Amino acid sequence: MVSSQSFPGAQPDAPVVSLSDVRFAWNAGSSIVIDIHRLDIARGERIFVRGPSGSGKSTLLSLLGGMVIPQNGTVRVLGHDLAGIGGAGRDRFRADHIGFIFQMFNLIPYLSVVENVILPCGFSQRRAGNAIMAAGILHRRVTELSVGQQQRVAAARALIGAPELVIADEPTSALDADRRLAFIDLLFQECEREQATLVFVSHDAAMASLFDRAIELTGMTRADLAGEAAAAAR
Ligand SMILES: Nc1ncnc2c1ncn2[C@@H]1O[C@H](COP(=O)(O)OP(=O)(O)O)[C@@H](O)[C@H]1O
Ligand SMILES: [Mg+2]
After folding, report:
1. Which element (helix H / strand E) includes 20?
2. Fewest C-beta atoms under 10 Å: which of 73, 87, 96, 218?
3. How far is CA 194 from the centre of its chain?
4. Domain boundaries, given as residue ranges, for the chain
5. For residue range 158-168, what is the model confidence (pLDDT) as tens digits?
């Protein structure tokens, strides 16, 4: 029996993300989509994950969010082994600590702007408690918004209540170059303000240089993503 007090919180000294010997296939007997020996992401890092369509980018995000659990290895987020806290624990943990931005922003059309932004807070009292609502939030329907305004709402929704980890799955793929840069700029500003760690997925390698670090998924080979430091230590 798990009491409410023992729900996992953030452990401030732990890497935000730490993967060790992670292998994942969607079904028993189907091919391995994710095969990562090591991946550590420090607090406040802005990570770019690139790879062609079908290379496992969204699958990696599902592992980080605890939507799925690997058949092999460990996924730690904020120091917690996601396999060890159970399905309900993962739902709670995700709501408390992770902000999501999806392709086309996934705003809910029948809700107002403010309702869209506070949506994650319905799942998380912690984040609702942290939330400081900006003055002048619009009570408009999101269907009346420009793309630029939709970007703002999507970023605000992901960052509300200061989640430690923000996960973005190709949010800029439908935008033209100017809007793409403007959105990345906004996202970086918001993440820096909240000291959030950002994992941003795209098939568009041109944006990689804007980030602190890029991770390449090929979908074929075993990846050792520990980086230069580990290679230098060998
Ligand atoms: N929910 C799912 N069930 C079964 N297979 C899936 C599922 N999601 C993705 N896959 C498969 O996993 C592989 C990687 O997909 P995905 O992670 O979506 O790649 P990407 O985001 O890089 O385009 C693909 O072969 C895809 O068909
Ligand atoms: Mg994808």
Report:
1. strand 17-24
2. 87
3. 14
4. 15-233
5. 998 899 999 99
